[in-house]
Amino acid sequence: xxxxxxxxxxxxxxxxxxxxxxxxFAGLSEPVSGPGVTRLAYTHLExxxxxxxxAHMEELGAAVRTDAAGNTLAELPGTDRSAPxxxxxxxxxxxxxxxxxxxxVGVVAAMETARLVTEHAAAHRHPLRFVVFxxxxxxxxxxxxxxxxxxxxxxxxxxxxxxxxxxxVSLAEAMTGVGLxxxxxxxxxxxxxxxxxxxxxxxxxxxxxxxxxxxxxxVDAISGSTRLRxxxxxxxxxxxxxxxxxxxxxxxAAAEIVLLAESVGLRAAAWGTRATVGRIDVAPGSMTTIAxxxxxxxxxxxxxxxxxxxAAAEIVxxxxxxCARRGVRCTATPLxxxxxxxxxxxxxxxxxxxxxxxxxxxxxxxxxxxxxAQQVNEVTPAGMLFIPSRDGISHDPAEDTDLDxxxxxxxxxxxxxxxxxxxLP
Length: 425
Ligand code: HGY
Ligand code: MN
Ligand code: MN
Hints:
The strands form three sheets. Strands 1, 2, 3, 4, 5, 6, 13, 14 and 15 form a nine-stranded mixed β-sheet that branches. The chain has helices at residues 15-26, 44-59, 104-119, 146-151, 171-177, 208-212, 250-268, 305-326, 345-357, 372-376, 403-423, and strands at residues 63-66, 72-76, 85-91, 128-133, 195-203, 217-222, 224-233, 237-238, 274-283, 289-290, 293-302, 329-338, 341-342, 363-367, 382-387. Helices cover 33% and strands 22% of the residues. The longest helix has 22 residues, at 305-326.
């Protein structure tokens, strides 16, 4: 097939095709999870979603493979077979009872971009590589971005047995359960020489674009995260027979720690730090028994690593002091840590220029959420495009983005990849 250069914006994403793909992926969800989407990391449902992506890309004539981490990669060759690839993609796993856009938008945009490039026979010198990363969400195992961390060489076989989900299933066991071999994840490590750049399209998961009336964002930095679990051991006892001054109430200690974490986050907010306790387990969980045990999962996000780490340390210190006063044992276990990442100008400026080519004025903003692009940036210069989240909601069934914005973001993505193709060596 003869290819020809296309003008910026000539590849216009098809809204209805995008809607159909979003609907198809949304249908792959645990049936009993609630109104949202539940497609957790390293489950059969996640693999089924990767298979939908693979079938679609094979139908377009792309060469498709799945690596030892469970990442699925599809490639359209460029005119220069020796050139490094320009990539795009995101993830298809979700949080429990999550939304139908987080990660999925970046994948359907990649699929639509591959279709547009193919149908228009758009010339490109670099190979175009479309990637679905496995296990981006940290909700199940605590560690976010497992598939892209493995690709970036940041997570290896030794890291996998120790991370466990709420049922005690390890990352390694979950990978084995879906036909992957955790011992071989070293084979999935990317070589920087194979890549020229990578761009991820994602919903903002915040309200900056919506509040400023902008339809496209270009990300200049991605927040880091320090995640830990705090286990509390008090004394279970009769809620009626035990006087207030003779208690070691793990639930009351947990409640105090939640508020301590919030106050640390509020004090450090000016530096872009955020602190959240999104999950508390209390035992035995009976109304007439004082809680003898409790566990809290703490997520500290930051754009300044030092502030992020200091905030986490302050939460642990103040939790220990509160527990000592209450006669409750307190143990903090680190779960994962990712530094904040400034994204390179070489990609960021091209994304901004592409928006200008298309008559758009983007907002340049940091990402509060973590993303696969953050890990990929260890291997090759990475960039991110954002589209608005309605009311800034994400990780919830109410997560919503206007389909016209999904289509516009996809058009900007396709034009950006072709502009990078013309600019990069
Ligand atoms: O949790 C996050 O920041 C992302 O959604 N994985
Ligand atoms: Mn995501
Ligand atoms: Mn997410």
